[in-house]
Design a protein that fits this description.
The chain is mostly helical and 822 residues long. Helix 23 crosses helix 25 (550-562).
Length: 822
């Protein structure tokens, strides 16, 4: 067990609490006077907010702003800073805990974190300290955390073979990023905004040469700023990937962009790292990804000049033109070999026909190198003819005309199966595809598809960037898409996308069952799959596949709606729900489910639309965007009622009640919880009734209505015992015990709370076992047995520490210190 972490001071939380207290006192109000305007059920929450023990939920902050006539966002910004500080603290403790676990002697037992613990930020997480600049800093020296964290991330893609030219640009990059003491971003852009000019190639080549200057590693991401799908990587997603590379566990990942940004900059403090942001779209996408550390360097590639960065961040720019003729000829000679050396005039002509554009030069060179009978003169003649043949694709002053001619010349040499696969790959909006998905897209068997892909990669028209995964360069994707619109009918294109969607849907449905066998089965529509759906050995394999394919699953979900595949369009995001519920990729979760809701609506399937809206509510709830969660739950309830699906209505009401409780709207939680209970009684759903009664008992206790809490929990206990639901039994007996203790009957309470501790331990619910131990300590205190109470608090602290809930460890340590003094 690692030593208990001591929480730092919480300046942002304290500042927020001080402001709230001054606002109330300035009006001469008691804390109870704020219950109605803030929609709270107990003034104890206000006590905690003002004392800095808890951060108010977003809905409560908005209510404060309305009641005290403050400008919207006045308090919200303070809340975001407090949450960000707490995120930094959590991440630092997670890194220290991981390092301590790795450093422990072999055979030493470690308590595993409980699967399924709430991800994102709670309102009770401890904070990090704040630097004078207002950014959060990790407790202890950031260097300590960095030294204990996992190995430095090394994310650079492979550098291409036979890098040619750009010597002046390489010298300038050295001067700006290796030799300068001033940390400013450097943007590599193209003079004319053209893709394929070699921005990424230059950046990656230089970065490999400079690796020794960045001992703490490199972060790399393709931001897909000019991806043909029009869906660039969001700043939230990009920072999330960087935080994962820096060792932040998924269940510690902050939800909001502001919180992620502060955590990212905190973890980069005192590190010497290179951040390569490839294919950026605009300033808004880039700015949150810039570390504040003076020791880090940032290299950006973009077709845009990103002028906004020059004003605030002092960005330096390196603009690329096409290669000089001598460098273009050198590139051709390195690839083609002796034939290019033997025909210098033809080689120079070929370089000019390719507009000295690096991507075009490589494709043309590969075409010649792959045909031993072709001379460079033959290639020049053929390419000139190809230019005329593809004139229908050209437009006046089209700077890419020469490039497209090269693409077309190489494309025309492919066999028909490879040509068709190339065209259809241009229809896919995701970043890449595995072999099985490629086969599903084009309707070929595994062997035939493998052969077609080999032809594409040999011709440099596709890239196998990871074993078994294939992608097209953005310009090639655009060209492929153009050819598909010309050569394939609308029906043929729809058939291809349907095959792709069906494969992903069948695979996702299997992943859903693997991740949560208790969910009702989701049957995809009948389909003839040319490749078997993906199957998974276990839960971890399903999670890994969903993470790997997340961008494709999102893209395919959105394309299903575009191609009027409405049944697949609502079922695919629904199949992904247990994955989103664990990993909290909120942007993809919300985007796919909004599209799914539209698909279900177009089908007129009220039950399906209700399910999707319920899932949307469950996306907003952990983000603490309670008003939006409530809106989607309430819309789902209306649809469930119209569809006549009473069980669904009861379940959504239960979710709605829990959301009100999370938002400290206890009275509303009770009202809605009673509605859910009535429905479960009408449906004769015993388990649903017992769960509602237990939750209601907890809410009654929070209002101080302990007799009512006792009655609800006792009834729930009877049902759970009939159902032999051990976890439910433990919940109910704990509720009974705590209610008895509050009623001044600690001797009776002791047996119930002790039983709940044993029950949660038997079911492996470590989190609830720790909470029950804390409750048991309070009962022992009521009985005048402080030594027994201290023993239970130490047990609870050990469990909370194993779960990574360091704020609870700190709270229990404070209580233990008080007992020792007593």
């Amino acid at each position: 067990m690692t030593p208990a972490a001591t929480p730092p001071s919480e300046p942002a939380v304290t500042a927020l609490g001080t402001v709230l207290r001054r606002l109330r006192r300035g009006r001469g109000l008691a804390q109870r006077d704020l219950l109605q305007p803030l929609h709270l059920g107990s003034h104890s929450a206000i006590v905690d907010y003002e004392a800095g023990r808890r951060i108010p939920p977003e809905a409560v902050i908005e209510a404060y702003e309305r009641f005290f006539n403050l400008a919207p966002g006045t308090l919200a910004r303070m809340r975001e800073q407090a949450l960000a500080e707490r995120a930094a603290w959590e991440a630092s403790q997670a890194l220290l805990e991981q390092a301590a676990a790795k450093a422990a002697p072999t055979g030493m037992p470690h308590a595993a974190a409980e699967p399924g613990l709430s991800a994102g930020l709670s309102s009770d997480q401890p904070a990090a300290t704040a630097t004078p600049s207002g950014q959060a800093a990790l407790v202890g020296r950031p260097a300590d955390v960095a030294s204990l964290s996992p190995p430095p991330p090394r994310q650079l893609p492979a550098s291409i073979e036979h890098f040619t030219g750009r010597s002046g640009e390489l010298v300038r990059l050295d001067r700006l990023l290796r030799e300068s003491d001033i940390a400013v971003p450097v943007v590599i852009s193209a003079v004319n905004g053209m893709g394929g000019i070699g921005k990424t190639t230059l950046a990656v080549h230089w970065a490999h040469q400079a690796r020794d200057s960045f001992p703490d590693g490199e972060l790399y991401i393709d931001l897909q700023g000019f991806h043909p799908s029009g869906h660039p990587v969001s700043p939230e997603d990009a920072i999330g990937r960087f935080l994962t590379a820096l060792g932040v566990p998924e269940d510690r990942m902050p939800a909001s962009l502001d919180a992620r940004t502060v955590l990212y900059r905190t973890l980069m403090t005192d590190r010497r790292m290179l951040v390569l942001l490839d294919n950026a779209r605009d300033t808004e996408q880039i700015r949150p990804l810039l570390p504040a550390s003076p020791h880090c360097r940032v290299l950006i590639t973009s077709r845009s000049r990103l002028s906004g960065l020059a004003v605030r961040e002092g960005v330096q720019r390196i603009s690329l033109e096409t290669l000089a003729l001598r460098d273009a000829i050198r590139l051709l000679r390195r690839t083609i070999g002796a034939r290019a050396v033997a025909e210098p005039g033809a080689t120079a002509a070929l370089a000019e026909l390719c507009a000295r554009h690096p991507l075009s030069l490589r494709i043309a060179a590969e075409r010649i190198a792959g045909d031993e009978t072709m001379t460079v003169t033959d290639a020049v003649a053929a390419l000139s003819v190809a230019s005329n043949r593809l004139s229908e694709l050209a437009v006046e002053d089209d700077e890419t005309a020469a490039i497209r001619t090269v693409f077309g010349w190489s494309y025309q040499t492919l066999p028909s199966a490879a040509q068709r696969l190339f065209r259809l790959l241009g229809l896919h909006d995701g970043p890449d595809l595995p072999l099985a998905a490629c086969a599903s897209l084009c309707g070929l068997g595994e062997e035939e598809c493998t052969a077609a892909l080999a032809r594409l990669t040999d011709s440099n028209l596709a890239e196998e960037h990871t074993p078994g995964r294939f992608r097209l360069h953005d310009l090639l994707r655009l060209f492929a898409h153009e050819r598909a619109l010309v050569e394939d009918s609308a029906q043929e294109r729809a058939t291809a996308i349907t095959g792709l969607v069906d494969w992903y849907l069948h695979s996702a449905c299997i992943a859903r069952v693997t991740l949560d066998p208790h969910l009702p089965p989701l049957e995809p529509p009948p389909a003839r799959l040319v490749m078997p759906a993906q199957r998974f050995a276990d839960e971890q394999a399903a999670l890994a596949w969903c993470e790997l394919e997340r961008q494709n699953l999102t893209a395919v979900s959105l394309q299903a709606q575009q191609f009027d595949l409405f049944e697949q369009g609502w079922k695919l995001p629904t199949a992904m729900f247990p994955f989103f519920d664990r990993r909290n990729h909120y942007g993809d979760w919300i985007a796919t489910h909004k599209s799914a809701a539209e698909c279900a609506h177009r089908l007129g399937d009220l039950e399906a639309e209700g399910k999707v809206l319920c899932n949307l509510g469950s996306a907003y709830r952990p983000m603490r965007r309670f008003d939006e969660a409530v809106e989607f739950y309430e819309r789902a309830i209306v649809l469930m009622r119209e569809a006549g699906w009473r069980t669904g209505e009861a379940k959504v009401l239960g979710n709605l009640a829990a959301t009100h409780a999370d938002a400290d709207r206890i009275q509303e939680s009770i009202t809605v919880g009673l509605q859910s209970l009535a429905l479960f009684e009408e449906l004769d759903d015993a388990w649903g009734q017992a769960l509602c009664l237990s939750n209601l008992g907890n809410s009654y206790a929070r209002l101080g209505q302990f007799d009512e809490a006792l009655r609800s929990q006792t009834t729930a206990l009877e049902v759970f015992r009939e159902l032999k639901d051990q976890r439910g039994i433990s919940r109910a007996v704990n509720g009974i015990g705590t209610a008895l203790a509050r009623l001044g009957r600690p001797q009776e309470a002791l047996g119930y709370v002790a039983e709940s501790v044993r029950g949660f331990a038997e079911t492996g619910d470590v989190h609830e076992e720790a909470n029950a131990l804390r409750d048991l300590a309070e009962v022992y205190l009521d009985l005048g047995q402080p030594q027994e109470a201290a023993a239970r608090l130490r047990e609870a602290s050990r469990l909370f520490e194993a779960l990574g809930e360091h704020w609870m460890v700190a709270e229990l340590n404070t209580a233990l210190a008080g007992l020792t003094q007593h």
